[in-house]
Amino acid sequence: MTGNIISVDGFSSTGKSTLASKLAEHYNFYYLNSGLMYRIISHFALNNDCIINNMIKESQLINQLDNLNFDWMIDNKGNKCLSFDGKIFGEEMYSFEISDIVSSVAKLESVRSFLFRQQKKLAVKKSIVVEGRDIGTVVFPDAKVKFFLSADLDIRTMRRNKQIEENNISFDSMKVEDNLIKRDKIDSERKIAPLKKAKNAFEIDTSKKSQIEVFDIAKNYIDSNFKF
Ligand code: C5P
Q1: How many A from CA of 53 to the centre of ligand 1?
Q2: Residue 37 scores a pLDDT above 90
């Protein structure tokens, strides 16, 4: 059903997107950011009255998601990218409002099973690099190559601040570290598909490494152990 799968799981702001997209480009694979899918669903919930005063109306949300789908689309630069309900979403999905609620939305069983099905469908007959929290453990436990990224909290906070600044994202910088801590906790402690390292995942601590160094480590690991 699927081609080769590379999973890149790990904590928030450890460099998963950078590594996953670089690997996808290098091996000419599709690139799927599953965190973005949870953010898009959170955005949809906020805009469709499914979250009021931080309370998520789960059944209302799931009913409204019926018949809506994620799909592949070509953007105006000619790149393959993810769309939801025919639209492409960008940096606005990294706002404080969405970051603050996304882990609570991602805890819901109905949301996870909706996105599980969508992720499986997006990977049909494709070689793909997928980043997230539960990709190597739950969504694609048979992924050929698995990575798990970690990094010190202060480094992760610094990186997230830089991303926010560079992309003009609306975010109170005082709240960046708190948001990372909060999401790590909810993501690691939830009952369904918690964030954890798959037994056969190759771990990279990215704290003191540049993006190129992390990419080189991952690429050398793949090229010395796997054939596509
Ligand atoms: O990767 P990113 O930080 O954008 O993910 C946002 C949130 O989406 C995570 O904090 C987590 O709550 C949720 N998520 C998840 N499972 C995934 C990917 C993301 O629960 N596979």
Answers
A1: 21
A2: yes
